[in-house]
Design brief:
- By secondary structure, the protein is α+β, with helices and mostly antiparallel strands.
- Helix content is 24%, strand content 34%.
- The protein has a five-stranded mixed beta barrel with strand order 2-4-5-7-6.
- The model has no long low-confidence stretch (mean pLDDT 82).
Length: 144
Amino acid sequence: MNRKARFAVAACLLTGAVGYLMYSGVQQTAVYYLTINEFLARKDTLVNEGIRVAGRVEAGSVTRKMTSSGEELNFRMGDFKTDGMDANQGTVPVHFIGVTPDMFKSDGGSDVIVEGKYRDGIIHAQSVLTSCPSKYEPEQTAKN
């Protein structure tokens, strides 16, 4: 084989290997999350499986307690559109022990994505992620 042909074959193999690594890396890290309504519709089939669920923390449902393994956080998660409070849509309890995100509001109303396993009617979260509000609203200041 002449020099140009060997170079072309090597370049094709290298390009193919890099493309495969990129594709397989994206496939492993791209995890779809369910909205709370999608989760509630399929919750019986998702028992003891790894899940990611997005929703809004129900106002007044947050309890915190410090333990030796981190902060224990319990709350109920509901739909985004109803601020987590709609008896017709339903909510699901979440239990988490670890470091609570800074943007998590103790009074509820935070948009969260929880990752963990669903068992015994509770999502046992391994991680809780908060998302930034979709619209920035500055803090109201007192006028003199």
